[in-house]
Amino acid sequence: MADELQPAYLIGGSDRPKVDRAVARLRARFDHDAVELHSVATTSGDDAVAACNALGLFGSGVRLVVVEGVEAWKIDDAKAVATYLKAPAPGTTLALVAGDLKKDAPIAKAVAATGSVLLWDVTQKAVPRWIADQFKLHGTTAEPEACRLLAEFVGDDLYELAGEVDKISTWAGNDRVTEADVEALVAPRAGSPPWNLTDAWGARDVAGVLRSTERMLDRTGDPLSKTIPRLLGSLTKHVRNACAVHRLEEDGMAPQEVAARLGLKPYPAQKLYAQVRNFSGAELDDALIRLAELDRALKGGSRLANELELERALVEITARA
After folding, report:
1. Considering the entire predicted model, what is its pTM?
2. Which of 51, 90, 137, 150 is 20–30 Å from 233 (CA)?
């Protein structure tokens, strides 16, 4: 924060731990009795403005009005704040705290005119990098592999990840955190991301497919009767998209058009195109048929254990002829 207090701050984004730290730093600049807390569950934009103006009438020094959850506010709430900020109450600071919020949202535009907008987001792809930064905040370093494994074990809940980083940093002290440390200290509770499986399949890496599948089965809290069908559904959807990409590409359709038709984002579409090149059209069709056979086997069409049926099918659709 700048030394000079602004009349308003909008603090938000998906990086909730960082948002919390920023709000805490701002609150620390005010006496405890000078901070008033509100939630959008009971506070509209007009209510927030009224709170700011009411506090300003007493002339009792600097005050802070905090409103949580403003991503839920509507256009009328933003207009009320924008109007207020044209002539804000002296000595009063309005802090609006949001979750996921676009930079061009009405409330962001309202605050940006005379205040400060601080939005911090973390994409799923950037979570390992975020974890590495959290270790640095604790004065600890961690191997990139350790950060990736921690994200794989815990998922993308940044609060949970921040707690694990704090625990591991306390244990590690000045030592560099390794992948083995994460394995020893963190209880896996997030399913292995399905893209680990689909990437291995697309590379025709049989060992990688089996390894990813084993992790997904081991690290879920659900019974196998739920996990295996869910895994099969994800893989079937991916192979179906691969078949569609192969056919549409043969028909001369441009990659951008194919991605739009299938509802794929650019990065997943790019990866899928690279994977399709490792298979013939007949192999992709056969893989889809084999997955349908697996589905039938899982629903009582086989006397073999479901895990064995799954393993056999994965090997057959991945291995080169």
Report:
1. 0.61
2. 150
